[in-house]
Protein backbone atom coordinates (compact mmCIF):
# COMPACT_ATOMS: atom_id res chain seq x y z
CA UNK A 1 0.00 0.00 0.00
CA UNK A 2 2.74 2.41 0.98
CA UNK A 3 4.69 1.87 -2.27
CA UNK A 4 1.61 2.68 -4.36
CA UNK A 5 0.96 5.79 -2.34
CA UNK A 6 4.56 6.90 -2.93
CA UNK A 7 4.26 6.48 -6.71
CA UNK A 8 0.98 8.37 -6.67
CA UNK A 9 2.48 11.27 -4.77
CA UNK A 10 5.68 11.67 -6.73
CA UNK A 11 4.54 10.67 -10.20
CA UNK A 12 7.09 7.86 -10.18
CA UNK A 13 10.17 9.99 -9.50
CA UNK A 14 12.19 8.58 -6.58
CA UNK A 15 13.71 11.19 -4.28
CA UNK A 16 16.38 10.36 -1.69
CA UNK A 17 16.90 12.77 1.21
CA UNK A 18 20.02 12.91 3.38
CA UNK A 19 19.32 15.21 6.34
CA UNK A 20 22.49 16.73 7.81
CA UNK A 21 23.70 19.64 9.90
CA UNK A 22 26.58 20.22 7.47
CA UNK A 23 30.34 20.17 8.13
CA UNK A 24 30.20 17.18 5.84
CA UNK A 25 32.63 14.30 6.27
CA UNK A 26 33.15 10.75 5.02
CA UNK A 27 30.15 9.50 7.05
CA UNK A 28 27.80 11.92 5.28
CA UNK A 29 29.35 10.97 1.92
CA UNK A 30 28.53 7.33 2.52
CA UNK A 31 24.91 8.32 3.28
CA UNK A 32 24.78 10.26 0.00
CA UNK A 33 26.03 7.20 -1.91
CA UNK A 34 23.45 5.07 -0.10
CA UNK A 35 20.73 7.53 -1.13
CA UNK A 36 21.88 7.32 -4.75
CA UNK A 37 21.70 3.54 -4.54
CA UNK A 38 18.16 3.81 -3.15
CA UNK A 39 16.85 6.10 -5.92
CA UNK A 40 18.98 5.01 -8.90
CA UNK A 41 20.61 7.15 -11.61
CA UNK A 42 17.31 8.68 -12.70
CA UNK A 43 16.24 9.56 -9.16
CA UNK A 44 17.00 12.76 -7.30
CA UNK A 45 19.34 12.96 -4.32
CA UNK A 46 18.73 15.92 -1.99
CA UNK A 47 21.07 16.81 0.89
CA UNK A 48 19.62 19.13 3.51
CA UNK A 49 22.05 21.22 5.53
CA UNK A 50 20.49 22.87 8.55
CA UNK A 51 21.94 23.35 12.02
CA UNK A 52 18.61 22.81 13.74
CA UNK A 53 18.50 25.03 16.85
CA UNK A 54 15.65 23.14 18.50
CA UNK A 55 17.73 19.97 18.92
CA UNK A 56 20.49 21.75 20.85
CA UNK A 57 20.05 21.82 24.60
CA UNK A 58 23.31 23.72 25.06
CA UNK A 59 23.60 27.24 23.60
CA UNK A 60 27.41 27.08 23.44
CA UNK A 61 27.29 23.79 21.51
CA UNK A 62 24.98 25.46 18.97
CA UNK A 63 27.22 28.53 18.74
CA UNK A 64 30.48 26.65 18.08
CA UNK A 65 28.94 24.06 15.71
CA UNK A 66 30.99 24.28 12.46
CA UNK A 67 29.21 25.76 9.40
CA UNK A 68 31.46 25.50 6.31
CA UNK A 69 28.58 25.84 3.82
CA UNK A 70 30.66 26.67 0.72
CA UNK A 71 32.94 23.66 1.20
CA UNK A 72 29.89 21.48 1.90
CA UNK A 73 28.22 22.49 -1.36
CA UNK A 74 31.43 21.66 -3.24
CA UNK A 75 31.54 18.19 -1.68
CA UNK A 76 27.89 17.63 -2.62
CA UNK A 77 28.53 18.68 -6.20
CA UNK A 78 31.53 16.33 -6.45
CA UNK A 79 29.40 13.49 -5.11
CA UNK A 80 26.68 14.03 -7.76
CA UNK A 81 24.04 15.42 -5.39
CA UNK A 82 21.16 16.93 -7.39
CA UNK A 83 20.05 19.55 -4.87
CA UNK A 84 21.26 21.03 -1.60
CA UNK A 85 18.50 22.37 0.64
CA UNK A 86 20.10 24.80 3.10
CA UNK A 87 17.39 26.99 4.62
CA UNK A 88 18.46 29.81 6.92
CA UNK A 89 15.47 29.17 9.17
CA UNK A 90 12.71 26.58 9.32
CA UNK A 91 10.59 27.88 12.19
CA UNK A 92 7.96 30.55 12.60
CA UNK A 93 8.84 32.90 15.46
CA UNK A 94 5.75 31.71 17.35
CA UNK A 95 5.75 28.08 16.19
CA UNK A 96 3.86 26.00 18.72
CA UNK A 97 3.72 22.48 17.29
CA UNK A 98 6.33 19.80 17.91
CA UNK A 99 6.56 16.02 17.90
CA UNK A 100 7.09 14.06 21.08
CA UNK A 101 8.05 10.40 20.96
CA UNK A 102 7.83 8.83 24.39
CA UNK A 103 9.44 5.38 24.31
CA UNK A 104 12.47 5.12 22.02
CA UNK A 105 13.62 8.60 23.01
CA UNK A 106 13.86 7.69 26.71
CA UNK A 107 17.31 7.03 28.17
CA UNK A 108 20.77 7.73 26.75
CA UNK A 109 20.70 10.82 24.48
CA UNK A 110 17.09 11.50 25.49
CA UNK A 111 18.01 11.78 29.17
CA UNK A 112 21.39 13.42 28.64
CA UNK A 113 20.00 16.08 26.29
CA UNK A 114 16.49 17.11 27.38
CA UNK A 115 14.39 18.25 24.40
CA UNK A 116 16.94 16.99 21.87
CA UNK A 117 14.77 14.27 20.33
CA UNK A 118 11.71 16.54 20.21
CA UNK A 119 13.82 18.86 18.06
CA UNK A 120 15.08 15.97 15.90
CA UNK A 121 11.64 14.40 15.36
CA UNK A 122 10.08 17.75 14.53
CA UNK A 123 12.75 18.85 12.07
CA UNK A 124 12.81 15.48 10.28
CA UNK A 125 9.04 15.61 9.77
CA UNK A 126 9.33 19.21 8.53
CA UNK A 127 12.12 18.22 6.11
CA UNK A 128 10.11 15.26 4.83
CA UNK A 129 7.07 17.51 4.30
CA UNK A 130 9.18 20.05 2.41
CA UNK A 131 11.28 17.69 0.27
CA UNK A 132 8.74 14.84 -0.08
CA UNK A 133 11.41 12.12 -0.31
CA UNK A 134 10.61 8.51 -1.16
CA UNK A 135 13.60 7.45 0.95
CA UNK A 136 15.58 9.18 3.70
CA UNK A 137 19.01 7.97 4.84
CA UNK A 138 20.33 8.16 8.39
CA UNK A 139 23.53 6.91 10.06
CA UNK A 140 23.91 4.03 12.47
CA UNK A 141 26.33 6.35 14.32
CA UNK A 142 23.22 7.92 15.87
CA UNK A 143 21.43 4.65 16.57
CA UNK A 144 18.83 6.00 18.99
CA UNK A 145 18.02 8.82 16.56
CA UNK A 146 17.51 6.32 13.72
CA UNK A 147 15.24 4.21 15.96
CA UNK A 148 13.27 7.33 16.92
CA UNK A 149 12.79 8.32 13.28
CA UNK A 150 11.62 4.84 12.30
CA UNK A 151 9.06 5.09 15.11
CA UNK A 152 7.87 8.56 14.06
CA UNK A 153 7.52 7.42 10.44
CA UNK A 154 5.60 4.32 11.53
CA UNK A 155 3.29 5.99 14.03
CA UNK A 156 2.53 9.10 11.94
CA UNK A 157 2.24 7.18 8.62
CA UNK A 158 4.89 9.22 6.82
CA UNK A 159 5.27 7.98 3.25
CA UNK A 160 9.03 7.61 3.32
CA UNK A 161 11.33 4.60 3.47
CA UNK A 162 13.97 4.93 6.17
CA UNK A 163 17.41 3.53 5.33
CA UNK A 164 20.13 3.25 7.98
CA UNK A 165 23.76 3.17 6.80
CA UNK A 166 26.77 1.83 8.76
CA UNK A 167 29.10 4.06 10.78
CA UNK A 168 32.15 5.34 8.90
CA UNK A 169 35.31 5.56 10.99
CA UNK A 170 38.74 7.17 10.83
CA UNK A 171 41.75 4.85 10.49
CA UNK A 172 42.09 4.58 14.29
CA UNK A 173 38.41 3.73 14.77
CA UNK A 174 37.08 7.12 15.86
CA UNK A 175 33.64 7.59 14.30
CA UNK A 176 33.67 10.45 11.79
CA UNK A 177 31.80 13.41 13.27
CA UNK A 178 31.41 17.10 12.48
CA UNK A 179 32.49 17.75 16.07
CA UNK A 180 35.88 16.05 15.58
CA UNK A 181 37.27 19.29 14.10
CA UNK A 182 36.69 20.95 17.48
CA UNK A 183 39.24 18.62 19.16
CA UNK A 184 42.81 19.78 19.80
CA UNK A 185 45.62 17.49 18.65
CA UNK A 186 45.96 15.90 22.11
CA UNK A 187 42.18 15.59 22.52
CA UNK A 188 41.95 13.94 19.10
CA UNK A 189 44.39 11.25 20.29
CA UNK A 190 42.42 10.72 23.49
CA UNK A 191 39.17 10.42 21.52
CA UNK A 192 40.18 6.96 20.26
CA UNK A 193 39.27 5.74 23.78
CA UNK A 194 35.61 5.49 22.68
CA UNK A 195 36.35 2.93 19.99
CA UNK A 196 38.89 1.15 22.19
CA UNK A 197 36.22 0.85 24.90
CA UNK A 198 33.90 -0.83 22.40
CA UNK A 199 36.76 -3.21 21.54
CA UNK A 200 37.24 -3.98 25.24
CA UNK A 201 33.52 -4.72 25.67
CA UNK A 202 33.64 -7.07 22.70
CA UNK A 203 36.43 -9.11 24.32
CA UNK A 204 33.79 -10.94 26.33
CA UNK A 205 34.56 -10.43 30.02
CA UNK A 206 31.23 -8.93 31.05
CA UNK A 207 31.71 -8.81 34.83
CA UNK A 208 31.71 -5.23 36.12
CA UNK A 209 32.04 -4.13 32.53
CA UNK A 210 30.46 -0.70 32.79
CA UNK A 211 32.67 0.32 35.70
CA UNK A 212 35.80 -1.00 33.98
CA UNK A 213 34.93 0.86 30.78
CA UNK A 214 34.44 4.14 32.62
CA UNK A 215 37.79 3.70 34.39
CA UNK A 216 39.45 2.80 31.09
CA UNK A 217 38.09 5.85 29.24
CA UNK A 218 38.73 8.27 32.07
CA UNK A 219 42.41 7.26 32.13
CA UNK A 220 42.60 9.81 29.33
CA UNK A 221 43.29 13.10 31.12
CA UNK A 222 40.63 15.12 29.26
CA UNK A 223 37.93 12.43 29.09
CA UNK A 224 34.76 12.41 31.19
CA UNK A 225 32.14 9.73 30.59
CA UNK A 226 28.56 11.03 30.29
CA UNK A 227 27.10 7.51 30.00
CA UNK A 228 27.87 3.95 28.95
CA UNK A 229 24.73 1.91 28.34
CA UNK A 230 23.76 -1.50 26.98
CA UNK A 231 20.40 -1.99 25.31
CA UNK A 232 18.30 -4.35 23.24
CA UNK A 233 18.37 -3.28 19.57
CA UNK A 234 14.71 -4.16 18.99
CA UNK A 235 13.05 -2.79 22.11
CA UNK A 236 15.66 -0.08 22.87
CA UNK A 237 15.27 -0.99 26.55
CA UNK A 238 18.35 -1.22 28.79
CA UNK A 239 19.84 -4.70 29.33
CA UNK A 240 22.77 -6.15 31.29
CA UNK A 241 25.94 -6.31 29.17
CA UNK A 242 25.71 -9.47 27.07
CA UNK A 243 26.70 -10.76 23.67
CA UNK A 244 24.36 -9.38 20.99
CA UNK A 245 23.41 -6.31 23.03
CA UNK A 246 24.28 -2.88 21.68
CA UNK A 247 26.58 -0.62 23.62
CA UNK A 248 26.26 3.15 23.38
CA UNK A 249 28.46 5.74 25.01
CA UNK A 250 28.79 9.50 25.28
CA UNK A 251 32.08 11.01 26.39
CA UNK A 252 33.25 14.57 26.85
CA UNK A 253 36.77 15.00 25.51
CA UNK A 254 37.60 18.42 26.89
CA UNK A 255 34.53 20.50 26.02
CA UNK A 256 33.52 18.38 23.03
CA UNK A 257 30.90 15.69 23.50
CA UNK A 258 31.31 12.60 21.31
CA UNK A 259 29.00 9.60 20.94
CA UNK A 260 29.41 6.13 19.47
CA UNK A 261 27.69 2.75 19.53
CA UNK A 262 28.16 -0.80 18.28
CA UNK A 263 26.88 -4.31 18.85
CA UNK A 264 29.06 -6.23 21.33
P1 LIG B 1 24.74 15.24 11.52
O1 LIG B 1 25.16 16.17 10.42
O2 LIG B 1 25.81 14.95 12.52
O3 LIG B 1 23.42 15.61 12.13
O4 LIG B 1 24.50 13.84 10.83
C1 LIG B 1 23.68 13.72 9.70
C2 LIG B 1 23.51 12.26 9.40
O5 LIG B 1 24.78 11.67 9.18
C3 LIG B 1 22.85 11.49 10.55
O6 LIG B 1 21.95 10.54 10.02
C4 LIG B 1 24.04 10.81 11.20
O7 LIG B 1 23.69 9.61 11.87
C5 LIG B 1 24.92 10.53 10.01
N1 LIG B 1 26.32 10.35 10.39
C6 LIG B 1 27.05 11.17 11.18
N2 LIG B 1 28.28 10.65 11.36
C7 LIG B 1 28.31 9.47 10.68
C8 LIG B 1 29.30 8.46 10.50
N3 LIG B 1 30.51 8.55 11.04
N4 LIG B 1 28.97 7.38 9.75
C9 LIG B 1 27.74 7.27 9.20
N5 LIG B 1 26.77 8.19 9.33
C10 LIG B 1 27.05 9.27 10.06
What is the N-to-C order of secondary-structure elements (H for helix, E for strand)? HEHEHHEHHEHEHHHEEE
Radius of gyration: 19 Å
Q: Could you tell me the strand content as a percent range?
A: 15-25%
Number of separate strands: 8
> Which molecules are bound in this entry?
adenosine monophosphate
Overall helicity: 25-40%
Structural class: alpha/beta
- Helix count, DSSP H or I runs of 4 or more residues: 10
- Tell me about the largest β-sheet: 5 strands, parallel
Global morphology: globular
For this entry, what is the oligomeric state of its chains? Answer: single chain
Unreliable runs, pLDDT <50, ≥5 residues? none
Residue-averaged pLDDT: 95
Question: Can you list the strand order of the major beta sheet?
Answer: 3-2-1-4-5
Distance N to C terminus:
37 Å
Could you explain how this protein is built, in words?
This protein is an alpha/beta fold and 264 residues long. It is 37% helix and 19% strand. The protein is built from 10 helices and 8 strands. It has helices at residues 2-10, 26-39, 59-64, 69-78, 109-112, 116-131, 143-155, 185-190, 193-202, 209-217, and strands spanning 15-20, 44-49, 83-85, 135-139, 161-165, 223-231, 246-253, 256-263. The protein has a 5-stranded parallel β-sheet with strand order 3-2-1-4-5, sandwiched between helices. Strand 7 (246-253) and strand 8 form a beta hairpin. Helix 6 (116-131) crosses helix 7 and helix 9 packs antiparallel against helix 10 (209-217). The two termini are 37 Å apart.
Please name the defining characteristics of this protein.
264 residues; alpha/beta; five-stranded parallel beta sheet; 10 helices; 8 strands; 19% strand; binds adenosine monophosphate
